[in-house]
Amino acid sequence: MNSISLLGRNLARTALRTQAPLTTTTQCARSLPRNFFRRSMQTRPQPNQHQQTRMPTQEDLRAQFKNKNRNTLYYTLSIILGTVALSYGSVPFYKMICQQMGWGGQPISIHSGQYEEDDIASRLIPITDSRRLRITFAGSTSDVLPWKFTPQQREVRVLPGETALAFYTATNLSKEEDIIGVATYSVTPGQVAPYFSKIQCFCFEEQRLNKGETVDMPVFFYIDPEFLRDPNMSKIDTITLNYTFFKAKYDKDGHLSPVA
């Protein structure tokens, strides 16, 4: 019995000695802060970002500046070309609108087929109980055009809705060349222009005069009866129709343009 008791005590002591370090380790682990391992992981060295990103070379920088300069050049050329095209197209477009709407002193032009015949006929009825309007005529030429251009009559008197025919005379004073001329026209006072309608006019087309040639140029017009219904026209009794001729030539593309 004593031997058995002694053996049991020795085994118990051995077991206690073996478990003591485990208990101590477990207690140490429990005594550590909860975020100890998390902080340890966060403090691991991170890779250097500057080492991963490749620095641009001189060739890369030159290529970037070259592309930027090329784009800027394209944008600039586009703006210049657009401005030039707009400047060439705006003048005839503006003139066309003025002729249709009577703006800027441009009398309204009536071409064949532009309006219904019944509509035109309804406007060509003289208003007999209205006052007669005094229509005067004027003509001039540009400095580079060697023409003589004058109206054959100083004035005519018409009723609103009544048609009238007037003539101008043009003479090419040059003895060396045939000359092409184009005419611009206007009406004063300018607010009368929407009611001044031309049925036929030499200004609709270019005029070519041989050297020393003289021609008569007619203009067929009327004053729209709506003139009488406009209160702004109540004090207007005199209207002036003015023409100015300019020298013109065809360019290599076949376009007619004035000669300055």
UniProtKB/TrEMBL annotation:
It comes from the Eukaryota. This is Cytochrome c oxidase assembly protein CtaG/Cox11. Exerts its effect at some terminal stage of cytochrome c oxidase synthesis, probably by being involved in the insertion of the copper B into subunit I. InterPro entries: CtaG/Cox11_dom_sf, Cyt_c_oxidase_assmbl_CtaG. The chain crosses the membrane at residues 72-91. It is a single-pass membrane protein. It is found in: Mitochondrion inner membrane. Keywords: Membrane, Transmembrane, Transmembrane helix. One of its GO terms (molecular function) is copper ion binding. One of its GO terms (cellular component) is mitochondrial inner membrane.
